[in-house]
Every structure is written in structure tokens, then in C-alpha cells.
Amino acid sequence: MTSVRWKVSGRPVAYPDAVRSMEETAAGIRAGEAPETVWLLEHPSLFTAGTSARDDELIDAGGIPVYRTGRGGRYTWHGPGQQVAYVMLDLSRRGHDLHAFVADLEAWIIRTLACFGVTGQCRRDRVGVWVVDPCGREDKIAAIGIRVRRWVTFHGISINRAPDLASYARIVPCGIRSHGVTSLAALGVDADAGALRAAMEETFGEVFQNVLR
């Protein structure tokens, strides 16, 4: 199977249901019974703690559910107005290069943001994508947290379109205390969910379509 299936969920998906579905899809890809898949969705408001999360980075959940998860990274928030993309690809057919895969995810996000006139940047010491304001302030606009099992990836990325950023004050996002979090809406960009998803589909092909082996 060489084509990537593009899956979109129009309603918020509960986190345990999403993890279960990812596990099933990843197993199907490893067995050669399912196509590689990108799944676009939103979650109801929740926090997830990656494998490197520290207890003191959860400041006050405030009744928001918290899930421990097998992805890399630390604490982050998911919820309405944030576009999540779970990326299930077979790296055994894409060069067996995890670092290149993460770099491709960053490039995908940067190309997507450029569709809306936003310049995203990467940092060697911080995974994810950042924007810099005229005063030099750096804020995170997109996060990356992945897991790989037998060279099949799952979990993925999230782009802040128009979420309630106040939820991030309840955690130390991604373990980084010295920088903030922003969104397209906070930057003055009015992008609806359909427009963002369309841009993500177009730019995904630009980054990933020619790397199958």
C-alpha cells in the first residue's frame, strides 16, 4: 500500500478512544493490512503527560482530565480550537530515520502556517514550532509528540488554531517555563477549521509524498 489515507473526525474524540484507534491502525499498518493514515481531529479539553513529564509540571488540573500516555514529551493540553493530527506512517519504508521524520513534521507545520502568512521557526533545543513577535518574544504555536513501535509511528502534532489559551496556565507546557504559547487567532489570523485542514492536507503531500521506498 503506497497511498496515505486522510481521515477527518468532525466531532471531538475522547482521548482513550483515539489511542485505541491509533493502536489498531498502527498494528494494521505493521501487518500490511491497513494503509498509512493521517487522522485530523479535535479532543474535548484534557491534559496529556508524555513519557518525560514531571509531577511538578502539572500546576492545577482544575477538574480537567489528565491522561498518562506513551508518546514522547511532557505535559500538553488538547481541546476545542486546537487541530490535532495523528500521523501513522511506516518508517521501515521511509528510510528508518526517526530524526528525519520529526524534521519532516516540523517542516509540514511550517508550510501550513505559511499558508496563513505566519512564519514558523524551529529551535534545536526545543521540539515544536515557534513564532517570534517584533520584540523578540518566542511563543509555541504547534507541538509534536510521537511514539514509534516496530518502525510504525503514531500520536503526532497539534496546531493551535483558536483555543482557549488560559488552559496552558495550569501546566508547564512541554516543560518549558521561559516561553509562552500562542495560536493563529491570538496572532490575528481568522482561520476556520476547514481552511486549516485543507492547508494541512496540501502541505503534507509536499513534504511526505516522495519519500516512500
Describe the structure concisely for a colleague:
The protein has three helices and eleven strands; from the N terminus they run βαβββββαβββββα. By secondary structure, it is an alpha/beta fold.
Write the layout of secondary structure elements.
Blueprint: E1 5-8, H1 15-30, E2 37-41, E3 46-49, E4 66-68, E5 75-78, E6 82-88, H2 98-114, E7 121-123, E8 126-132, E9 138-149, E10 152-160, E11 180-181, H3 193-208
Parallel strand pairs: 1-2, 3-4, 9-11
Antiparallel strand pairs: 2-6, 3-5, 6-10, 7-8, 8-9, 9-10
Shape: globular
State the helical fraction.
10-25%
Biggest sheet character: 8 strands, mixed
Output mean pLDDT: 94
What portion of residues belong to β-strands? 25-35%
Distance between the termini: 12 Å
Report the uncertain regions: none
Order of secondary-structure elements: EHEEEEEHEEEEEH
Report the structural category.
alpha/beta
Radius of gyration: 16 Å
**Individual helix count:** 3
Question: How many strands?
Answer: 11
Structure description:
- The protein is an alpha/beta fold.
- 23% of the residues lie in helices and 28% in strands.
- It contains 3 helices and 11 strands.
- The chain has helices at 15-30, 98-114, 193-208; strands spanning 5-8, 37-41, 46-49, 66-68, 75-78, 82-88, 121-123, 126-132, 138-149, 152-160, 180-181.
- Strands 1, 2, 6, 7, 8, 9, 10 and 11 form an 8-stranded mixed sheet that branches.
- α2 (98-114) packs across α3 (193-208).
- The mean pLDDT is 94.
